[in-house]
Structure formats: C-alpha cells, structure tokens
Write a structure and sequence with these properties.
This protein has helices spanning 5-26, 32-49, and strands spanning 65-67, 70-74, 82-86, 89-93, 103-111, 114-118, 125-132, 135-138, 142-144, 147-152, 162-170, 173-177. By secondary structure, it is of the alpha/beta class. The protein folds into two domains: 5-49, no CATH class; 65-177, no CATH class. Strands 1-3-5-11-7-10 form a six-stranded mixed beta sheet, with no helix packed on it. Strands 2-4-6-12-8-9 form a six-stranded mixed beta sheet, with no helix packed on it. A hairpin with a 3-residue loop joins strand 8 (135-138) and strand 9. The chain is elongated.
C-alpha cells in the first residue's frame, strides 16, 4: 500500500477530529495544529527522500522498500540489493540465494521501523552493523546498540564468494539470524 495524498488527508482529518473531541470532552489541550503540521512535514520529507514526487523515470520506490507497511522478501530484489523499512517492517529471507560474485552485497536499513533477516547456515557471511538510537541483533547474540558492530560466520573465507550485509538502524531495530 502506497501512502498517497488521499490517505494523508484522511488521516490528518481523523487526527484533527480526535483532537477536538479530546479537547472538548476531557479538557486536555493538545496542540493539534502543530502536530498536524509536523506530520505533514515528515510526510513530505519522506516522499522526497524516497523519490515519491519525482517522475517515474527519475525516481521511484524500489521493490525492496517497506514504507508504512509490512513486506516479506525471498532472495534478492531485481532492481537493487537494498531493503529499507521506514515506519514499517521488512522480513528478508536470504536462504537459498546464489553467491555468483566474490562479494554479494546487501544493504538493510531500518528507520523508525524494523527488519528481520534470515540467513542460510552454510552461507559464508560478513555483517557490518551501525545503529543510532536503535539496535542491531547479530547472529550468536552479538548485539550492536549504539555505534558499530561486526560479525563473521565460522565458514567465512575472504578469498571465496561470500555475502556482505551492511545493516543500518536509526530509531529502529534489525534482527539477523539463522
């Protein structure tokens, strides 16, 4: 489900109505106007960052983007090796992918959302994780909360084909496991 202008206007009207009801019934003064302006600015910023307002031949939402929804992915996406969860959840199943290149690079990003990555036990893997106000749970209970962390599988050999996962979490969480 893509978040279009109709959905945004509907959500803003509902929030505005709820704010008025809360104010009248419970005498709680919530700055509805400021909150709605803030939500609208966040919406515009996300649309610009993710290419939602650019012409389709210049920018578009990639198949690996889970924005305001939950998505399940099997294997690598066709247009890029990136999975992004923005205000949503992405479950990425990388079992059974073929490592055709020396380094098969996959980027997983969670911004105000969550991602789960499932790996094959026999796949050589190196993981580089970065977290800012979020967390990355690596295999074998290696955790990265603030800053960076790394992990290498037991069968990792830098001279052979392997999977490189670059995981970034900002106000979100990523869990990577077998």
């Amino acid at each position: 489900m893509r978040m279009g202008p109709g959905l945004l206007v509907g959500v803003l009207i509902i929030l505005f109505g709820l704010g008025i009801i809360i104010n009248v019934v419970f005498h709680v003064n919530i700055p509805i106007g400021k909150i709605l302006v803030g939500l609208f600015l966040i919406y515009i910023g996300l649309r610009i960052i993710l290419g939602g307002w650019l012409p389709s031949h210049i920018g578009h939402w990639r198949s690996g983007d889970a924005v305001f929804n939950n998505r399940l992915y099997h294997g690598l996406p066709s247009d890029s090796n990136e999975y992004n969860a923005v205000f949503g959840k992405a479950m990425v199943d990388l079992r059974g992918i073929e490592l055709k290149e020396k380094i098969t690079r996959v980027k997983v990003t969670a911004v105000f959302g969550g991602s789960e990555v499932i790996l094959d036990n026999n796949m050589p893997v190196r993981i580089k994780a970065e977290a800012v106000f979020g967390g990355v749970q690596l295999p074998e209970n290696v955790a990265g909360g603030f800053g960076s962390a790394s992990y290498q599988s037991q069968n990792f050999d830098e001279n052979k084909n392997y999977l490189l996962i670059e995981a970034s979490s900002v106000f979100g969480g990523i869990q990577i496991h077998y």
